[in-house]
Every structure is written in C-alpha cells, then in structure tokens.
Amino acid sequence: MQPSPAALLAALALPFLGAVAAPAVHRLLGERTAYFAAAVAAVTFALLAGQYGAAMAADPTASGVSYEWIPALGVSLTLYLDGLSLLIGFLASGVGVLIFTYSGGYMHGEPGQAKYYATLLAFMGSMLGVALAADLVALFVFWELTSVTSFVLIGHYQRTDSGRYAARKSMLITVSGGLFMLVGFLVLAFVAGQAPELTRTLTLVGTPDSLIANADAVRGALEARGLFLPVIALVAVGAVTKSAQVPFHIWLPNAMEAPTPVSAFLHSATMVKAGVYLVGRTRPLLLPEVAVPDWMLLVATLGLVSMAITAILAVGATDIKELLAYSTASHLGLIIAGYGLATEYGAEAGAFHILNHAVFKATLFMVAGIIAHEAGTRYIPDLGGLRSELPITAGITTVAALGMAGVPPFNGFYSKELLFEATYDIAATEGGLFWLYPAIAVFGSVFTFLYSIRFLMLFFGEKPDGLHAHRPPWPMLAPPLLLTAVAAYIGIGGIAGSFGFAEWPLVSEFVAAVTNASALHALEGGFTYYVPTTLSPYFAMSLLTIALGAVAYPFYDRIHAGVRRARAIPVTSPNVYYDAALSGANRLSPVAAETVHNGVFRRYAYTALAAVSALALGGYAATGATLPGFAGFVVSLPLAVVLLTAVLGAVAVVRAPSHIAGVLTLSILGFMIAIFFVLSDAPDLALTQLLIETLVLVLFLLVLDKLPSWYGDLKRREVAADVLLSATVGVTVFVTVLLSTGATAPNPIWRGLAERAPVPSEHGIWILDAGGGNNIVNVILVDFRAFDTLGEISVVAMAAISVLVMVGMRGRSEDVETDADTGPDAADPSADGGETA
Amino acid sequence: MTTERETTVIARTVTRVVVPIILVVALALLFRGHNLPGGGFIAGVLTCTAFALVYIIYGRESLRTLVGASAAGDGVLAGLPGTYARLFAVGLAIATGGGVAAMALGYPFLSQAVLYLSDVPAVGAVTKLPGIGTLELASAFVFDVGVYLVVVGGLLTIISVVGSE
Q1: pLDDT at B74 (0 to 100)
Q2: Which of B3, B25, B42, B103 to substitute to test the interface with A, most A CBs within 10 Å?
Q3: How far apart are CA A785 and CA B41, in angstroms?
Q4: Which helix (H) or strand (E) holds A140?
Q5: Model pTM score
Q6: Burial class (CB in 10 A: 0-12, 13-18, 19+), B129
Q7: In this model, does residue B134 exceed pLDDT 80?
Q8: Which strand (E) or helix (H) includes residue A335?
Q9: What is the number of other CB atoms lying within 10 angstroms of the CB of residue A160?
Q10: Any residues with CB less than 8 A from the CB of A27 and at least 6 apart, and which?
Q11: Separation of first and last alpha carbons in chain B
Q12: What is the CB neighbour count within 10 angstroms for residue A429?
C-alpha cells in the first residue's frame, strides 16, 4: 500500500522550512521559539502518524513514492515508508517534540538560540530524510546532512576549545565513514546494474526494479565478482562510524560538549540510530540464507565486541553524560549485534531495542540535564541521595535505569532477552567458537547492569554535604515523564503477555512491522513478548547477568578504578591514534604548502611546464603515436620569407640587450605569425593574432619601467636547466602541432559544423537548427560552442577581478606588513605571491 | 607609465584622428562577425587598443574624463577600474541572460536562433537592389555583444590596474 506522497513530502519539507523561519521567529518570540519548533515537530509527527496504516502494509516492491531529481544520473528522490522508517521518523519527530519542549526550560538564558533551534530543526529534517529516502544518493545526502548539523550543534559553545575539538572529531569520523558508505553504495549499484537480469538503479527499496526487491539477483551479481564482502564492509564502516562502534566510538563521549537536549536527541535517540538504521535497512539485501553468512561474522561480532567494550568503558566514566555516552555506544552495539545475527530473533532484538533504547536513554539524558542544571555538577562522586529533593526525577530514573539494566519486567529486558535467545540459538546450532556470542553478550550485559545501577544510585544512598538541587521547571520534567510512561507501557505489555495477552496493543503490531522491514521473511504469527514463566536457557542468561551484576556491584569503585587504569595506557585508546594522526596532519600541511607553494615564480613555471611536457610526451609515447611524414611538403616563397623572418626575430629576442629591444623583437615574431595566417587563408586568426600582439606590446611597454634592468648573474647550472626546459617545451609544442594537424579523423567534426553553419537552402522565417552565418569561426564561438565561450569570458572576468584584488589591494596588505616587519626575516615568503620572480 | 615626459605633437594629432577610426572599425567587426571575419572577441580587443592608445599618449586623467568615470579614490573600484568592472559584469549578465532567455522559451541553455526576413522594403531601399532586401537577425549577436563587453571591460581593467602601478 502506497503512503500519501503529499504527506511524506510535507513531513520532509516542514522541518527545513521551520529551520529557515527559525531566526525570524526567534526575533519575534525570543526564548519561546522552543514551542514553535515543538509545534513544527508535532505537525511532522502527526503527518507521519497519519500514514501508519500505509506503513504497516508496506510492500518493498511497490510502495515507494518517486520524484525525479537528477534523471541523467538515475538519481531520484524516492520516499519509502515501512515499519523501520516509520520508527526512525517517530523518534525524530516525536522525541523532537519532547526535546524542543525540554529545551524551552534548559536553554533559558543560553546564547545563540536562533542558531540552535534552526540547526536542530534542520537536523530533524535530515534525520527524517535518512529514514524516508529509498534512493542511495538521496540517503547519502541526508546522512551527511545529519553529520553537518551535528557538527554545528556539538560546537554550540563555539568559543571553547573542547567544543571545537569535539565538533571536529565527530565531523571527521562520521563524514569519512559516510564516504566509505558512498563507495559501497556506488559499487553496489554499479555491479547490480551490470547484471543482465537487473535494471540499472540507485533505488534501494520500494519499486519493482529496486535492489531489495531483487535481493537474490543482486547478491548473486556481487558474489560473482567477489565484491560481496567488500560491499558489506564498506556499508558497515558507514554504520559503525555513525553509530559510534569500537574503534570509532571515541567521538561520542566528546560530543557530550553539546547542550544536554542535543545529546539526548542526536546522540542517543536519533542520529546515532542512523547507523543501526542502515544496518537494518540493508540487512535483507546483504544477508544471504546460509548457515554462517559473512554478514553475521562481521556485523554481529563487531556489535557484540562494541557492546562489551563500551559497557566496560561506561563503568570507568566519572561524568554522568560520559557514562550515558558510552552506554549509548554499548546499546547501539546490542542493536547492531541483533541485526547481525542471522535468525528471526536477531531482527526482533534489533527492531525492539531501537525503540526501547530511544525511550529509556533519551529519558536518562534529560535526567542528566536536570541534575546538571539543578545540582550544578555532573561529577559522579559528588552526587548522591538526590531522591529527597528530586522525587519525581527519581521515579523517572528508576523506571528508565532498570530498563537500561535489563531487569524484568522493565522495557529493556525484553529486547535483551531476544538478543540472548538469538545468540544462544546460533551457538546451539553452530557450536564451537559460536558459544562466544552468548558469552560476550552476558559479559557485556553485566557491565551494563553495573553502570545502570550506579546511575540509579545517584538518587539513593547518602547525600554528600553541600549538594543542593532545585526543583526543575515543568518544561524540563514533562518530556522525560511522558517517555517514562511509554517505557512503563511497554513493560506492562510484557507482564500482560505472561498472563496470556499475546498481542499488546500498538507495540506488538508496530514492532512486527519494524522487524519485517529488515527480516528475510515476514514474521509468522506476529510479534509477542512476555516475562518468562519457565526457566529457558536465555532466561537463565538474564538471571545470571543480574546475579553477577548484583555480586559485583559492591566492588564497583574497584572495577571503576581498574577500568580507568587500563584506559590510561596509551595504546589501548583509539583517541591516541586519532590525536596523533590529526596533529601529524596538522604539522604536515604547512610543510607541504611551503614546498609546493614557496612563492618563487621560477619553481611554479618549472613544475607547470615540465609536468605538461612530461604528460604530453609520455602520452604520445604510451599511445605509440608516430610523426607524419614530410612527403610532398612544399613551401611557397612568400611563406618561406615570412617564416625565416620569424626565426630571425626569435633569435634576436634571445640576443636583445634590453627589455625594450626584447619586447620589440618578440613582436616581430608575433606579427610574422599573423602574416603567416593571412597567407594560409585564415583571416580571423590573423586579425586576432595581430590585435593580441598589439595589445601585449602595449601591456609590456606599460610594465617595463617597473622591471629591474639587470637580474644579476645566473649560475651556470641554472642556465643549463633553463635551456633544457625550454628545449623540452619547444619539442613538446612542435610534436603536438605536428601530431594534431597530421591526425585526420574518419569523420572530422568540422564537416558537420561547416554544413550547419551557413543559412540552409530551405528554411522558414526562424532558423533554429543551423547557425545561419557564413563565418564559421564566429558561428562556432557564439552558437555551436557558446557554452565554451561563456566559460572563456567568465575566465576573462575572473582574471580581471583577480588583478583588481591582488594588485589593486596590495597596497593595503603592504601597509600592514611594513608595520609588522621588524626584522629582515619577518616577512612571510608567501605573502608576495608571484611577485618574487 | 609616467606622464612626466611630454608626448610629441605628432603622436597626439595622429591619436586624435586614429582613435575614432579604430572604434568605428571595431564596431563594424562586431556587427559583421556572423558572416565575415570579425566578432565580439576581436572587436573587443581592437577597442582596447584604442583606449590604450589614448591612455599612453594623453595619460590617465584625460582617459578618465573621456570615459566619464569618477575620480580615483582609495577603493579598488574607484575611478576607471570601477567603470570597467561594471562593463564586464554587464557583459557577463547579457551573455548569460540570453542563454537563460532560451531556457525560458523551452530550449536548452544558450540555444541561438536566427530570424531570417526576405523582401524587407527598408533594406531594399538602402541597397537599391530590387528583391534583395533580406534581413538576418541572429540572437547570437546578443551573446556576441556580451562577449565584446566582457573582453573590453576585462582587458581594460587589467591595463588600467597594471598601468597605474
């Protein structure tokens, strides 16, 4: 069933329009812009919710809505709405409403609010684009847009060093990961396009020709060329960088520099979900139905390892937002692992945990914001016993943190249970090393339990002296409260499930649709979940996790210190490599710039001329071009006289005693060439040559005064090099002219041009397909090749502007320089540009 | 170029006579370019030589009054360069505008057309030849005018900036 195109387009466009309007709205409403943005998000949410029925019945072969974008390249704006994209869309717009409302309280008195709301709205639109776009290029564009908006938001406090560092780090990692993904997409589309049974398309899903609709054929084409694993790896790099998986998780803790609502929105509920969305979306395409697919070995292993490592790192955190950041990376690892496992339960675990994680983690981030705002610190050792002063927040945190810990019957338990079930099933069927899957899952979950309880204990236990918290304002309290209600509702569904309510309203149907979007076959019998009443192996795994966690919790401080010591060893931290690479690049760039761009005109001329000659001659040698023969070569007497005069002029240029004499003798050469053109029946060329020669002469005369009359003695070595270069350039030009004039195409282009240039013999009043002029040179210039001419006159204009700026404004920079110029070495060698000849 | 050295009377007189002729020839080259040797580019370069001649023989100030530019000031665009810069900007706009006009009529960017009229009485009256009154109006001429203005403006900008150094 196809969703309403108008609703999808409106939902996609509205946030961007809101972003454009935000600065003006901020001028009118001030801090209440938050509620304007929340209203935009609410309308978007409503538009998407209206398509709920269509999304539940989505058909990957037909439900796409297509608009042309770049038809010449096959790029379209295809929108596709199924359970998975609707879930991400709901997270972007629904959590968006809450975050904007929360921002109304949190951002009170903060600087740069117009920028903040505009960027946040633009981000929301980009995220919806990621969710809805079914075209690979469109998906990539929206994907990178989320990175760019995230960059701006992380760097919200742009005057702080840490803010800039964090923004740059996230940008570099996520954008470069996106480029890997783009390469993967292009390889995928290109290889699939070459398969005879497939049409060439960039559409991922939603049309009969799309890649997912023909998943088996696409996999076959990729495997036949041995590109299946590389495509999986490339797409996975995109997902892993975006979703902050090991070893690219390092940007996420730094991203906590952003205002807390941004962290809650981008770095827990939405943007980092883009990576897992990609994994879920491409799963049916890249996961073949074999016992141990490459996909599982790569994606599931990566997800589980990330889940465990980042959970351990979360235990080592001392800042509540840092703890939540690592925890986010860990839970994303869980989702990716779920999608990686080649069982039905794996897809269910991934799908259900996207929902559960967004609900409890966004809540906890908002709680962290409340603590930071109202207690004035985010340092974990300074916090404790906040229950008495923040009772509602304590209640919220209990539900959310126990959900995060995976304690039944709270919401996170069910999806984690599904992951345990999936890993256990794989291990039971495959045996051997695959038993590591459930082992790692339990191991990582123990740490998850530990840090979840630690976070919860901020509200319990003894209160440190001097810690006071104020009641948060309602705009900051209502959004997490609402999310907690959702979490509780999901949790109650599980209890109801144990009492025989198989289908919990809303949740079951929705999660089933989300699962189907990334499953190979539609779920049979829908999606059900419940608190187990019998001791299955996976329930035993859950209980073991909780038991181990409970036993280890009294030693939390010791584990925490141990993790911090391990983290302090430089080799263990990817941050060290990142910083080293970055500072290395920073040091390298000025060195490279000074080598390439050293301000000495001689070197520029040498590199450019030598490179052109080498490339041209190398090209001739590589293609085995042979010079045409000179048989039947006749020169008339006038031509011989003219050419001889030109040669004499050229010799005289070299021997000229002064600049004036040199320029004048050079123009002898030029004018002789003009006469040569006249004799060769090329009046246009002759005219142009004559005029240019005159003008160049005038220009030379204007600047000759300024040139020094004596450059000093040249070294013998330099003279030799000059001669060598001149000779090479001369030979190159000579050979090029001979080859290009000697080559005759079987059907030369001038024939067609010459036919079409004049007025055709039969024509009406309007001549459209012919030039209608006898001067073919001019007709080519202004009609057939007018676009080239437009480029050329643009270059003329650019050159004039450059001269205006570089020469005309030079006086200003020189004034500045003379002020700063205190010593002989103080002048920057590159400041003079090409003037140092 | 310094103006301390006085130019000779001969040079000044010849310039006075030659410059109008150069300009007329340049215009002729521009107009006839579609059918005979000529065109916007050559016409533009020729026009530049005329201005350069005035500049060298009479100096910067007289050229400024001739063109009617504002007095030279601190800004980069004050005085002659400003006038020239406007010239090439207008030229670029004309050349591009013509191309966009073709798009507005549903043809690809920069498509050109020719309006070919035969038996135009007025042309017949001028040529005094019965039946030969054909008039060809090429839209490419608009583009050529753009090229002409860009070349004149661009080259003169360079000459005046470099010359004033």
Answers
A1: 61
A2: B42
A3: 14
A4: helix A136-154
A5: 0.74
A6: exposed
A7: no
A8: helix A320-340
A9: 12
A10: A114
A11: 8
A12: 11
DSSP string, A66-117: EEEEEGGGTEEEEE---HHHHHHHHIIIIIHHHHHHHHHHHTTT-S-HHHHH
CB within 8 A of B65, min separation 6: which ones? Answer: none
CA separation for the pair A759, A779 (Å, rounded)? 11
By C-alpha distance, the chain A residue nearest B39 is A778
* Contact assessment for residue B95 and residue B44, using Cβ atoms and an 8 Å cutoff: no
Q: B155–A800: do the CB atoms touch at under 8 Å?
A: yes
The length of chain B is 165
User: pLDDT digit string (tens) for A794-830?
Assistant: 999 999 998 888 876 666 554 444 444 343 343 343 4
pLDDT at position A656 is 84
**pLDDT tens digits, A229-260:** 999 999 999 999 999 998 899 999 999 988 99
Is there a contact between A786 and B99 if contact means CB atoms under 8 Å apart? yes
A778 vs B2, B34, B76: nearest CB:
B34
Cβ contact A789–B35 (<8 Å):
no
> Is-contact B110 A787, C-beta < 8 A?
yes
CB within 8 Å of chain B, chain A residues 769-788: 770-775, 777-779, 781-783, 786-787
> Which residue among A701, A767, A807 places its CB closest to the CB of B113?
A767
Q: Read out DSSP for chain B?
A: --S-SPPPHHHHHHHHHHHHHHHHHHHHHHHHTTTSS--HHHHHHHHHHHHHHHHHHH-HHHHHHHHTPPPP-SSTTSSHHHHHHHHHHHHHHHHHHHHHHHHHTTSPTT---EEEE---HHHHHHHT-TT---EEEETHHHHHHHHHHHHHHHHHHHHHHHHT-
CB-based contact A767 B99, cutoff 8 Å: no
Distances in whole angstroms, Cα of residue A69 to Cα of each of A66, A76, A183:
9, 5, 20
User: At residue A798, what is the residue type?
Assistant: M
Distance between CA atoms of residues A147 and A241, nearest Å: 11
Evaluate whether A346 touches A340 at the Cβ level (below 8 Å): yes
DSSP count for chain A of H helices, then E strands: 34, 3
Question: Which segments of chain A have a pLDDT < 50?
Answer: 814-837
Indicate the residue type of A180: F
Tally of CB atoms within 10 A around A557: 10
CA distance B153 to chain A (A): 8
* pLDDT tens-digit map of A647-662: 999 999 888 888 888 8
pLDDT at A483: 94
What is the residue extent of each domain of chain B? Answer: 9-106+140-163
**Number of neighbours of residue A115 by Cβ within 10 angstroms:** 16
Helices A556-568 and A301-315: crossing angle, nearest 10°? 110
User: What tens digit of pLDDT does each residue of A409-458 get?
Assistant: 899 999 999 999 999 999 999 888 999 999 999 999 999 999 999 999 99
Residue B5 pLDDT level (bands cut at 50, 70, 90): low
Tokens of A88: 């991400």
So what's the pLDDT on residue B123? 60
From the list B29, B91, B12, the residue with the least C-alpha distance to A690 is B29
What ipTM describes this predicted complex? 0.89
Burial class (CB in 10 A: 0-12, 13-18, 19+), A172: middle
* pLDDT of B12 over the 80 cut: yes
Tell me the two tokens of residue A145. 């847009």
Which candidate, A153, A319, A372, A334, places its Cα nearest to that of A245?
A334
Q: Which of B2, B136, B154 sits opposite A796 (nearest CB)?
A: B154
3-state helix, strand, coil in chain A (%, to 5): 75, 0, 25
Tokens of A43: 């309308």
